[in-house]
Amino acid sequence: QLVESGGGLVQSGGSLRLSCSASGFTFSTYAMHWVRQAPGRGLEFVSAISGDGGLTYYSSSVKGRFTISRDNSKSTLYLQMGGLRADDMAVYYCARGPNYGIFGVLGNWGQGTLVTVSS
Amino acid sequence: QSVLTQPPSVSGAPGQRVTISCTGNTSNIGAGYDVHWYQQLPGAAPKLLIFGNSGRPSGVPDRFSGSKSGSSASLAITGLQAEDEADYYCQSHDHSLGGSGVFGGGTKLTVL
Predict the structure, then answer these.
(1) Could you tell me if B108 lies within 8 Å of chain A, comparing CB atoms?
(2) CA distance A83 to chain B (A)
(3) Alpha-carbon gap, residue A75 to A27, rounded angstroms
């Protein structure tokens, strides 16, 4: 099970930290992803991290502004978001990736947390 | 513009068979990367429907099937039911993007 938290209303240019608490599987052996969905739009890969935290990925739209991290002792994934813009407004989903590398099938998804950016 | 192309919408009557295509190129599906499919019911999070081109997670009815050929993949749904009305997304990887994951734009399935 994956449960996201930390979403909310933030002003343009502001910061927010999302968390994703995992249970029911050996967290440290799986890559984890953040995928977002803007209102009425499709799915977009945002960021990903390998099981040991040694490999990370950022989409070009968030590179330099967002930082992904994980605490395997707490089975928790994080996304530190900075320099937020109107086009970052979306539901952010935490998803479990493969138990190898970073990219592969996303086997489980959280319920999502909404990030709203106001100008 | 998504890297993987899906039709924006498809429809079918209950009991019918529908297919949803996912077209890529030689940098993604055609390069041999697996294709996965997700179902997103209205107001819900996406859920894995098909993995590794044609695998079905436990609990997914065998009415859902996936296939891949060349640079394209397809999701077929037989015996269409009202509860199948949802958005469907394909996902693969693209080596021109460093092997990162890519989604199709999504297809809205309407059960008439």
Answers:
(1) no
(2) 24
(3) 6
> Tokens for B51?
């993995």
Q: pLDDT for B77-86, tens place per residue?
A: 999 999 999 9
* Contact criterion met (CB < 8 Å) for A105 and B34: yes
CB contact (8 A) between residue B106 and residue A106: no
Task: Concatenate the DSSP letters of all residues of chain A into one string.
Answer: -EEEE--EEEETT--EEEEEEE-SS-GGGS-EEEEEE-TT--EEEEEEE-TTS--EEE-TTTTTTEEEEEETTTTEEEEEE-S--GGG-EEEEEEE--SSSS-S---EE---EEEEEE-
Cα angle: A87, vertex A91, A93; to 5 degrees: 120
Which residues of chain A neighbour B101 with C-beta distances below 8 Å? Answer: 33, 45, 48, 103
Query: For residue range B11-48, what is the model confidence (pLDDT) as tens digits?
Result: 999 999 999 999 999 999 999 999 999 999 999 999 99
Contact A103 B93 (CB under 8 A): yes
